[in-house]
Request: fold
Amino acid sequence: MSVPHQHKEHAPASVKCGVVTSSDSRSPETDESGKLIKDLLLKGGHSVLFYAVVKDEPKAIADAVEQASWTCDAIITNGGTGLARRDVTVPTLAPLFERTLPGFGELFRRLSYDRIGSASWLSGALAGIYHGRLVFCLPGSPDACRLAMEALILPELPHAVGVMNR
Reply:
């Protein structure tokens, strides 16, 4: 049996997840990307134990991720990863990470390039470890969230959590 398959044998069947949407204009009722992420996690057999829509404010974002880290093994944020002045998710969370996972952002931008072209480099999508929890910072676009979830996060989420918990 190959090494990747051996690692995946020890992966949990279900991962406890949190979803945080950073937006000045969305509410839980209008949060299309957050709903999509939650739906994809649930369809993938995972649980969603935390969900919040917060303003694009550093303290609100950091507080929500901190609170999610109390019960969740993985936290997926969306929104606030671009170049606008109000896009503060990445500059807020990156300094808090114990470790960054550069491959996530690199692969996300590569896959995005195939779909949207050169504008893909404008994304600050990032992943890292915060208090021993996986954190993914996705753009706010539903299409970008679907791409990240289906191509990168869902295929490896249990494996990554399993490796971290060894």
